[in-house]
Design a protein that fits this description.
By secondary structure, the protein is of the alpha+beta class. It contains 9 helices and 9 strands. Helix 5 packs across helix 6.
Length: about 220
C-alpha cells in the first residue's frame, strides 16, 4: 500500500488548499481536470506548492487537520520553508494558450536576448543577412544582443511594454523565436514557489494545462537559460 502525503495547492485566487492522498500524481490530475474537491474546482488553475510524506492514512488526516488550523501566514511560512525544487518535484503542467502575456515586459524591464544561434535562425526566417538583422532589429547591452523595442526610436527596453514581433497577441516569428521565449515559463527566476504562485500563475493562462513536464525535463530546459 502506498504511503500517504499531505499536500498544499495554491489556487488561482492565491488561497491555499490542503488535502491528503496516496496517489499524488492522480490526485493532481483530478484537481486539474476539475474533478477534485469542490473548493478547488471553482479556483482553477492550481499549483502544487507543498508536500509532506506522513505514512499511514490516520497520521495524514491528523497532519491535514493541523495544517488547516494554521493561519494563512503560518501556512505561507510552511510552504516557503521547503527548498525551491520541492514544490515542482512531481512536475508541472504547461501548454501555451497563445495569450501573448509572456511577451509583455513587467517591472520596468523587458530584454529579449538573442544567442548566436538565435540570431542566425531569426535572420534566416526574416530572409535577412546577419548584419541586416543586427542593424534593423537589435541592440546590445553589456555585450549581450537583444531585440529593440516595437518603436525603433526607443532604444532602451525600459520604456517598452511588449515585443515588436507581437501582433494581435500572436508571435509573428514563432517558428524562429529566441531561446528565451522557447523556454518560458521555466526560467531560473521563475522557479521558486513565491514567484511562480504570485506572478507566473497570475500572468500565464497556460500553467496547469496540457503536457506534464517532469522534473528532469524542467531541469533540462533550465540548463538552456
Amino acid at each position: 500500500m502506498k504511503s500517504y502525503v499531505v499536500y498544499i495547492l495554491r489556487c488561482n485566487d492565491q488561497s491555499l488548499y490542503t488535502g491528503i492522498t496516496n496517489d499524488l500524481e492522480n490526485r493532481l490530475e483530478k484537481h486539474t481536470e476539475g474533478q477534485g474537491a469542490k473548493y478547488v474546482r471553482s479556483r482553477l488553475p492550481v499549483q502544487l506548492v507543498y508536500t509532506e510524506a506522513v505514512g499511514k492514512k490516520g497520521k495524514a488526516l491528523q497532519r491535514e487537520a493541523e495544517i488547516k488550523r494554521l493561519s494563512k501566514t503560518a501556512k505561507e511560512n510552511l510552504v516557503h520553508s521547503k527548498t525551491d525544487e520541492t514544490w515542482w518535484s512531481t512536475g508541472i503542467r504547461f501548454q501555451c494558450q497563445g495569450s501573448g502575456q509572456c511577451c509583455l515586459s513587467r517591472k520596468g524591464y523587458g530584454y529579449v536576448y538573442l544567442t548566436s544561434k538565435d540570431q542566425q535562425r531569426l535572420a534566416k526566417h526574416l530572409k535577412l543577412s546577419l548584419s541586416e538583422l543586427l542593424q534593423e532589429f537589435c541592440n546590445s547591452h553589456d555585450g549581450y544582443v537583444y531585440l529593440t523595442p516595437a518603436n525603433p526610436k526607443t532604444r532602451s527596453p525600459l520604456k517598452e511594454t511588449g515585443c515588436r514581433f507581437l501582433k494581435k497577441k500572436r508571435c509573428t516569428i514563432y517558428k524562429a523565436r529566441p531561446t528565451q521565449c522557447r523556454t518560458w515559463p521555466f526560467w531560473p527566476d521563475n522557479m521558486n514557489a513565491k514567484t511562480w504562485t504570485s506572478e507566473v500563475i497570475r500572468d500565464c493562462p497556460g500553467v496547469g494545462k496540457g503536457t506534464l513536464f517532469t522534473p528532469a525535463q524542467i531541469k533540462a530546459i533550465l540548463r538552456k537559460c
